[in-house]
Specification:
mainly alpha
């Protein structure tokens, strides 16, 4: 079967499955999110998919075929444990790279582990690396044979590729819409010199809408129902700011006249 079709299938299946996992995990198991007792879309996109899980499933599928003869010949169980560690490490690395790209280039923090012990920049932490390890073990022992069978079935029923194409058609439209929103948020983040915690920002918008509904009566809507994104940043940005972006303020200070005079004096001396 076409390798590209295999990757497209794995990405789509992993993205949707990951979205479902995150939805229930945040609602019932996450130590922080479950306290809010709300169903919240765990992704940045409008639709039910998380691309990082799609990429992760591809990684797990590829790693599921590796063997370590030097270990497996003597200790087959130890070989599996080592493979699980490799899978978890790769997933953690993928999570870190993705998170840092969004933080450094788009000034968005899509998830926040800053409240967990041992976290690095709020993007990865030991607890979720353990979750990746458990997920890798579950995939290898339970799902990998099923995935291989599914790909074999797909190779004999290529008409199913129509549904994969349908998925990516909707996904492409969602990407266009969501990245337009992302660009707007980035402009506001640049203006206020912050990195936006996206989940906190989204949660604040939900709170504002709920407050607007409570204040609404008859046919008159609350002023909060029409609040603009810029007003949200002006009033509530402390609620969803990860950190100040200090480079721009430092440059502004350096451009002031007193500082310039000191710099000129140092150069003359």
């Amino acid at each position: 079967m076409n390798k590209l079709l295999v990757l497209l299938f794995l990405f789509s299946a992993g993205s949707v499955t990951g979205w479902v996992i995150e939805l229930f995990f945040r609602r019932y198991l996450d130590p922080v999110e479950r306290k809010k007792k709300k169903w919240v879309n765990p992704g940045f996109f409008v639709g039910p998919y998380l691309p990082i899980y799609g990429s992760g499933l591809i990684v797990l599928y590829l790693l599921g075929h590796i063997h370590i003869p030097s270990i497996g010949a003597i200790h087959p169980i130890l070989e599996k444990l080592v493979i699980f560690v490799i899978m978890a490490a790769c997933m953690t690395f993928l999570e870190f790279v993705t998170g840092m790209i969004f933080i450094n280039h788009l000034h968005l923090q899509l998830w926040d582990y800053s409240s967990y012990w041992g976290n690095i920049k709020g993007v990865i932490c030991p607890l979720f690396s353990c979750f990746w390890y458990a997920l890798a073990a579950f995939y290898y022992l339970v799902l990998h044979p099923q995935v291989v069978d599914a790909l074999d079935w797909l190779s004999r029923n290529l008409a199913f590729s129509f549904f994969i194409g349908f998925f990516y058609g909707i996904f492409l439209l969602d990407i266009i819409y969501s990245f337009q929103l992302m660009i707007k948020i980035k402009k506001l983040a640049d203006e206020y010199q912050i990195v936006v915690k996206y989940n906190a920002y989204k949660s604040k918008l939900v709170d504002i809408r709920e407050e607007a509904k409570e204040r609404s009566y008859f046919f008159f809507s609350s002023r909060l129902s029409s609040i603009s994104p810029k007003e949200v940043f002006e009033k509530y940005r402390e609620n969803f700011s990860m950190k100040g972006m200090v480079m721009a303020p430092i440059q502004k200070i350096a451009d002031t006249k007193p500082v310039k005079k000191i710099q000129e004096k140092v150069k003359r001396d």
